[in-house]
Amino acid sequence: MEIEPEDERILAGEFGETRQKMMEILVALGKVFGAERLVQITSAQVSGASYKTIGPYGLEWLGQLDARAVVPAVLNPIGMPRGRWQEMGVDYDFAKKQNAVIAAYERLGIRLDCTCTPYYQTSPKFGDHLAWSESSAVSYANSVIGARTNREGGPGALAAAIIGKTPCYGLHLSAHRKPQVVIDAVTDDRVFSIAHYGALGYLAGKLVGNRIPYFRNIRPDADGLKALGAAMAATGAVALYHVEGITPEACRFKFNVTGLETNVIDRGDIEQIFSRIPVDAVAVGCPHCSPGELKTAALLLSGKKVHIPFYLFTAQAVIEANKNTVELIEKSGARVYADTCMVVSPVMERYKAIMVNSGKAFAYVPGMCGAVARIGTIEECVAVATS
Ligand code: F3S
Q: 287 CB less than 6 Å from ligand 1?
């Protein structure tokens, strides 16, 4: 692997032990994956932020590091809303450890925007190289924006934030961004909601594994794309997909998909995973809610009261830019929390059955929260919580 003279000096320890360690991580990753060089990145998104997932050893490792990020870098969701953890019911001991994790990242120059939708704050551009780690954010950046990132592990993304570069392999290279399998979705004329796109992604991810799918016959908006990609990244390992006529790179491949394996997913397949089981909580915002999703929830909840806990998760910056909407939602008794989510917060482990409108949450809630999951549209979520 070609290493530039400045990077050789970092490797030799001239700029401190932490930068040396971080460069060693990047070079080791590059060698394993056959990268020919490192490439400059414009931003990083670092996972391994919830104390629930990194535990004491991760915290100890972070505490030993001494350097600062050189590109804009944000954190993945953590285990609690920073300003409202007591209200959410997070216990003091967990909060103390979670705050220690946050403090360690802050010392490293990572911004404390704890979100899986960093694209609502830092807007990467088509063709930018990134080092992002949360799977739904990676999928959105690659597929919807046309930026380029592999799915980085926590240490790889942190190393990239501190060095400002990442190994150039995989999805950083045009040759590795071609579709490998076609999915024809048969949707019909009825409403195809965000939850339906999540359910389509849930099924498609199982079907395609880690291949790059090319969808035909669907017309998702940005929130639908977000839901589709997040679910495929959860049930498969899809980090890039194309939607004919919609996503920015699809036009490059329109005439090159003939001969690829083609699968059909129809409305009946999708509706089979919707159920009517009773639930004791509702949680939406996986990935974190967009301003539009918050507005829809506010309209639906207007003049109603929730009778079971109803959580909406989003980024702090989205809350701050939509204060009136958040106030309207919270008048119903529902709660809009930043920084965390239904999967990484230990609070969600207290419920037996959770209703979500996300294919990704539907896939993860059973394993991560020990609860049964039910998927439904946002209209159905509100109806269940308020009736
Ligand atoms: Fe985001 Fe948590 Fe879902 S990190 S994508 S809301 S599992």
A: yes
